[in-house]
Design goal:
Strand content: 25-35%
Oligomer: single chain
Shape: elongated
Number of strands: 35
Distance between the termini: 19 Å
Number of helices: 13
Length: 673
C-alpha cells in the first residue's frame, strides 16, 4: 500500500521522484572520458516566489521553512557557476505576480543581485504579470494593442527595477531595443560564442524588426531565443501544443533565421518539448517549462541544460536547490529534489557542426579534463538528501471508521447513502444524508433540486468510486454540466434547516473529497462550485465593500486553471472577502481538500492531500458570515444574484463543515482509533 500511495501522490502532484543512491554513483563513475560541455541555468516563472516572500502575504516561505525559493535558486547558481561551468543564466519572465506591488519587486531584486554579486551574467524578460497591460495575442490584428509599442514606458515597474543600465552591467550584455523590454547577450563557452535573444511579453512588429537586425549584425552566432510565451502544452500535460503567438513568432522571426536553434519559454504550466524544422530543413528545439502551479508555487524547480559540444547532445535536468535545504520536518510527499519524468529529464541529440554549417565554421576548443556536468550535480547535490517518506495512511475498515466530532459545532457531514450502486440516477428530492450525531443537526440533509436550464434527470448519479481514505459508501457524480449552455444540477438544504442560519464565529474546518474527470474542459467547467450558499454576499451584515456583491458568501470552486478556490466573507470583518488557492489539480485523480481557519494563528490554510498549499490567507479574519437567517447550502453549484450558476462537473465524495479548527488527526482521512 505504501508504494501505491506514493505512486498516487506523485501522479497527483504531476511530478515524478527519482531514485537516489547507487544508480547515481554508477552514472557519475561512467563519465570517465573528457567531456567538452557547459551548462545554462534556466529560471521559469518566479512570480509566486516573489509574492509569498513579502510581508504583504505574511512571509509564508520564511515562516514555514526559514528560507525563500527565489533566493535559493540564484544562490545555488552563484555558488556553483564556476564548479559546474555555468557561463550564463536565463530568466523566462513573470518575475513577480502582481506588477503594482513594490515588495514583490524587492524580493526579485534581491534574488537577482546574488547573481550580479557573483559576476554570473543573466538575461531577464518581462512576462505578462510584469507589465501594466496584459493582453493575449489571438490574431494578427492584436499587434495593434498590448505590445511594447503601446506601453507608457516611464510607468512600467519592470523598466524601473530592471532598467537598461542594470542589464548593461552584465559582462555578456550587448543591447536593448528602443522600448527597453528586449535584450540580447553573447557568452562564450569552449571557444564558441552563443547569443541569447531575450524577448519580453507581446513583442511589437518594431521589436521583431530589431531582433532580426540583431541576428543580421551577428551572422555567425548560434541563437537561443528566450520568450515568456511561445510553446504550450496539451491537456495531457506532456505533449506540446503550438500557440497563435508562437506561430506568429515562427513566421516573422524564427523560420527564416537559421541561427535560431533553440527556444525557451514559460507561461504555460508544465513542461513539453517540440522539435520543428525551419525553412532550411534544420531543427529548432522548442521547450516550454513552468512550475508555478505545482507544490509551493513551483518548489524552486529550475533547469540545467548541459550542452555537450563534442558529444553532440543537450542533456536536460529539472531540480530544486531549495528542497534539499528545507528542514526535514517540513518535507511532504510533494517535495522532490529532481523530476525524472520523460518531459523533465531528457536528451536532445544535435550534430552541432552540421546544424550550424550554414553560418559557422565549427571548431570548439576540446576539453582534456572535463567530466559530464549533470551526473556530478546529481551526485553532489543529492549527497546528503533523504527523500521524505510519506506517512502510511490506513484505509477505513468500515463506513464509520473516521474521527467523530462531538459538540454542536459539527454542523454538517454530507455523503452518499448506504446501498448505492454505480450509475443509479439521483431522483428529484432524493437526499444526500447528513450523518452528524448532534441532535441539533440531525435531519439537515441535502436534497436534489429540480435540474436547471438544459439539465436532465440523468445528469446526477451515485457512484461507488471514491477516495481510498474516504469511509463513505461512495460519491455523487455530476454529469454533463456545461457553462456554455447553462446546464447544471445541485443539492440544497431544506428551507428552515438550522445550518442555513449558521455563521462560523470560532474558525472552521471544511473538508471535501473531489475528483475531476479526464474530459474536464475549462470552457465548459471553469469556476464550477462544489459548495456555496444561497444569497448575495453584498447583503451580508457589516457593510460588504468587496467585488462582485452578487456572488455567494461561500465560493468553494474549481478555477479555469483547475485550482481549488476558497473564497468567503469572514465573520469578524465582513467588508472584504478572503481567498486561498491551490495549485493545479490533475484530472482523473481523487483529492482530499481541507480548509482550516484558526483564529489563534490568524491563518486560513488550504491543504491538498494533507500538504499545505502556498497561496493561503495570512492575517486571516475569523470564520465566515451568514447572509441572513435562512441561506440554504448548495452542493454542486454556486449562486449569482438570484439564481443557481456554475455547475460542478465531476465527483464529490463527502463534505463536512465543522465550526472550529481541527488537527489532521481529526480529519476524514484519519481513522476513528
Amino acid at each position: 500500500m505504501l508504494s501505491d500511495r506514493r505512486s498516487m501522490l506523485r501522479g497527483a502532484a504531476g511530478l515524478s521522484a527519482m531514485a537516489v543512491g547507487g544508480g547515481l554513483l554508477q552514472a557519475a563513475q561512467a563519465a570517465t572520458t573528457a567531456v567538452t560541455s557547459f551548462a545554462i541555468a534556466v529560471l521559469p516563472d518566479t512570480q509566486f516566489y516573489s509574492r509569498y516572500a513579502t510581508t504583504d502575504e505574511g512571509q509564508q516561505f520564511q515562516n514555514r521553512y526559514g528560507s525563500t525559493p527565489y533566493a535559493a535558486q540564484t544562490k545555488w547558481i552563484a555558488d556553483n557557476a564556476s564548479k559546474y561551468n555555468i557561463p550564463f543564466a536565463i530568466h523566462l519572465g513573470d518575475v513577480v505576480d502582481q506588477v503594482g506591488k513594490p515588495n514583490q519587486w524587492r524580493v526579485a531584486d534581491e534574488a537577482m543581485k546574488l547573481l550580479e554579486n557573483a559576476a554570473v551574467p543573466y538575461s531577464i524578460l518581462a512576462g505578462n504579470h510584469d507589465v501594466l497591460t496584459d493582453y493575449d495575442y489571438r490574431t494578427p490584428s492584436d499587434q495593434g494593442s498590448g505590445t511594447d509599442a503601446q506601453r507608457n514606458l516611464s510607468a512600467e515597474p519592470y523598466l524601473q527595477w530592471f532598467p537598461t543600465n542594470r542589464a548593461a552591467r552584465q559582462s555578456t550584455f550587448r543591447e536593448r531595443d528602443g522600448s527597453g523590454f528586449h535584450e540580447y547577450h553573447v557568452f562564450t563557452a569552449h571557444g564558441v560564442q552563443f547569443m541569447v535573444l531575450s524577448m519580453s511579453w507581446r513583442v511589437s512588429d518594431a521589436a521583431i524588426t530589431w531582433a532580426r537586425d540583431v541576428i543580421r549584425r551577428n551572422p555567425t552566432l548560434p541563437v537561443i531565443l528566450s520568450n515568456h510565451q511561445l510553446l504550450n502544452i496539451n491537456a495531457d500535460g506532456v505533449t506540446p501544443a503550438e500557440t497563435e503567438y508562437g506561430k506568429m513568432l515562427w513566421d516573422k522571426l524564427i523560420n527564416d533565421n537559421d541561427q535560431i536553434f533553440m527556444t525557451l519559454n514559460g507561461h504555460h504550466h508544465g513542461a513539453a518539448y517540440l522539435p520543428k524544422f525551419n525553412k532550411f530543413g534544420n531543427e529548432v528545439h522548442q521547450m516550454v517549462v513552468d512550475y508555478q502551479m505545482d507544490y509551493q508555487g513551483g518548489n524552486a524547480m529550475m533547469r540545467l541544460y548541459e550542452v555537450d559540444l563534442v558529444g553532440n547532445k543537450i542533456d536536460v535536468m529539472s531540480f530544486s536547490p531549495w528542497v534539499v535545504g528545507k528542514p526535514a520536518n517540513t518535507l511532504t510527499q510533494f517535495d522532490f529534489a529532481e523530476l525524472t519524468a520523460a518531459n523533465q529529464r531528457f536528451t536532445i541529440n544535435i550534430n552541432f557542426k552540421k546544424r550550424f554549417a550554414g553560418f559557422l565554421r565549427w571548431k570548439p576548443t576540446p576539453s582534456t579534463t572535463g567530466t559530464a556536468i549533470l551526473p556530478r550535480v546529481r551526485s553532489e547535490f543529492l549527497a546528503n538528501y533523504v527523500e521524505p517518506t510519506p506517512a502510511v495512511m490506513r484505509p477505513p475498515a468500515d463506513a464509520n471508521d473516521f474521527p467523530l466530532i462531538t459538540g454542536d459545532d459539527n454542523y454538517a457531514h454530507w455523503r452518499a447513502p448506504a446501498g448505492i450502486s454505480e450509475g443509479r440516477v439521483v431522483q428529484i428530492g432524493e437526499a444526500m444524508p447528513n450523518i452528524t450525531t448532534s441532535g441539533q443537526h440531525v435531519g439537515q440533509h441535502l436534497f436534489r433540486a429540480t435540474p436547471a436550464g438544459a439539465a436532465q434527470l440523468g445528469d446526477v448519479v451515485w457512484s461507488t468510486d471514491k477516495h481510498y481514505l474516504s469511509s463513505a459508501p461512495g460519491s455523487v457524480r455530476f454529469l454533463n454540466s456545461d457553462k456554455t449552455t447553462g446546464r447544471l444540477n445541485a443539492f440544497l438544504t431544506q428551507v428552515g434547516a438550522s445550518v442555513n442560519n449558521r455563521s462560523f464565529w470560532n474558525g472552521y474546518t471544511i473538508e471535501a473529497f473531489i475528483k475531476l474527470p479526464a474530459d474536464w474542459d475549462s470552457n465548459k467547467h471553469r469556476w464550477a462550485n462544489l459548495l456555496g450558499r444561497v444569497g448575495r454576499r453584498g447583503s451580508v451584515p457589516g457593510g460588504f465593500r468587496g467585488g462582485d456583491p452578487e456572488a455567494s458568501s461561500v465560493l468553494f470552486a474549481i478555477s479555469s486553471l483547475r485550482e481549488v478556490q476558497w473564497e468567503i466573507v469572514p465573520a469578524s470583518n465582513s467588508q472584504y472577502p478572503q481567498t486561498a488557492w491551490s495549485g493545479e489539480l490533475i484530472r482523473s485523480t481523487w483529492y482530499h481538500v481541507a480548509i482550516v481557519n484558526d483564529p489563534a494563528t490568524r491563518m486560513t490554510t488550504l491543504f491538498v492531500d494533507g500538504a499545505p498549499v502556498l497561496r493561503n490567507i495570512a492575517n486571516a479574519e475569523t470564520g465566515t458570515r451568514s447572509i441572513s437567517v435562512n441561506n440554504p447550502w448548495i452542493v454542486g453549484a454556486g449562486w449569482w444574484d438570484t439564481v443557481l450558476t456554475d455547475g460542478y462537473y465531476g465527483w464529490i465524495g463527502e463534505i463536512r463543515l465543522v465550526g472550529r479548527p481541527l488537527p489532521s488527526t481529526q480529519w476524514l482521512t484519519a481513522r476513528r482509533s
